Amino acid sequence: MKKVIQFGEDVKGYDIPVLNEREIRAAAGILFLVIFFSLILILFDNNFVPAKYAVTLFMTDFIIRVFISPRFSPTLIIGRMIVSNQNPEYVGAKQKKFAWIIGVILSGIMFIFLVVVNGYSPITGIICLLCLIFLYFESVFGICLACKFYSFLFREKAQYCPGEVCDVKSKQDIQKTSPAQLLVVLAFIIYAVLAISFFKDYYSRKPYDLFGINSNNVAAKK
Predict the structure, then answer these.
(1) How far apart are CA 78 and CA 14, in angstroms?
(2) Among candidates 161, 112, 103, 95, which has minimal Cα distance to 134?
(3) What is the pTM of this model?
């Protein structure tokens, strides 16, 4: 029974239970897309129904991860199938559990406000934005923002972090950013600001139907 509900997997060569970061990132990407499209429907169609289902499923998935076992999390199982041909990247399970507890708390608050109370407020908007940021950084950059607080709160160094960022080491040449590269980024930002300032009216024009497809459809309905 302990093997079934344990948090993390025992892998040879690792002193503590670990998880596969690749499937975690895949699962984070799945949840990000679900929440993102739910938010789009709220913003453009004022439709809260998909968001209510998304919050319910999000909370249920994280409750399974934390209180039962990550191996039974539906999104992690799907993520495992997606990246099954990739070599595992092992990360410490303890800091991930802490991060997912935060996920349970945030999704629980969202569930109470949006589903139980059936109301929305700046609180739900901020929490939704936080969840999107956490999931985006996890899925795209492989950075667990919530895990950053683990060492700070528990005064314990996290082990086996993604990309070995927990290990003190010097950067290789390919990882270093030169002053010229920083100037390129700065110049690109200035270019973007100038483009928005000077071409705002031009870009604001509504595009016309190049092949007249919509016009033909409207005429046909008439």
Answers:
(1) 25
(2) 103
(3) 0.77
